[in-house]
Amino acid sequence: MNAPKFKASTYKSDIEPVWCPGCGDFHVLLSITKALAELGRPPEDIAVVSGIGCSSRIPAYTNCYGFHGVHGRSLALSAGLKVARPDLTVMVMSGDGDGFSIGGNHFLHACRRNVDMTYVVMDNRVYGMTKGQPSPTTESDWDSALSPGGTGLRAFHPLVIALASGANFVAREFSGNIKATTRTLVEAVNHPGFSFVEILSPCVTFRPDEKEWKNTVHKAQVEETDDPARAARRIMTDDGMNTGILYRGRRPPYKAKVSDEIGDIAPLEAAFEV
Description:
The protein is α/β, with parallel strands linked by helices. 32% of the residues lie in helices and 16% in strands. The chain is built from 10 helices and 8 strands.
C-alpha cells in the first residue's frame, strides 16, 4: 500500500494559534488538516475562507490559499470564489456568532443556492472573542453577567435551518472526537453541493460548563437519510448532542455559466460616462 502523498502537517502553517488553552478549536484545526491530508489535494488547490471570530482565525493557521473576510460575509465571498474557480476546493470557517447572527441571511441563501462548497461552523454557544455575550445558539436561560437570568429568546437551530433552506449535506460532530470529525469533513467535501457541518467546540473560558460535552455527546442511533422529511423529524426531536451525518441529499449543485469570451465593453463604459 502506497504511503499518503500529503500529511496533516502539510496543511498546517507556521503561525501558532492564539486560542485559549483548552479551546475546542485546536481539535477542529487538527481534524481539518487530517481531512485535507486524507483528501490528498495539494494545498494550492484549496481555499479556506472565514469571517470574524475565534474560529475564523483558521485561514492563518492553514497552509492553503486563505481569505479572512469581514464579519458574516464569508459565504458570499466563498460562493463568488467557487463560481469563478470551480476547480478549487472551497472550505468556509465560521462560528455561531459570525455564521448565524450577522451572517444568518447569507447562511439561508447559501443553503438554497447549493454551490459546491463546505461550511464548517464551530458552535460554542457564546461570543468568545468579544468576551462572552450570548450568541444565536445560546440557551435561553443561560445566566451570565451580560445577560442576567438569560435572554429568554429561543435558540437558533442550525441543522433545522440548513435542512429547510436546501443544504445538500447536514452533519454535526464534537471537536473532541477527532477521528469522527475528520471522517465527516472528508465526506462533506466529497459530497456535491453545499455541505454544512456544525462542530460543537467548547469555549472553556466563557462557558466552562461545556467541558461536560465530552460526556453528553453521543453517536446518533438513526442512520443518515436522503429523505428531507425523515431528516426533519429526526432533527426536530434531537437533543442537540447527536453526532454524525444526518442528511445526505441528491440535489444537483449550482453550476454557473462562466465564459472566457470577452465582449465589447464600449457600450457599458458609455453608459457610465458623466
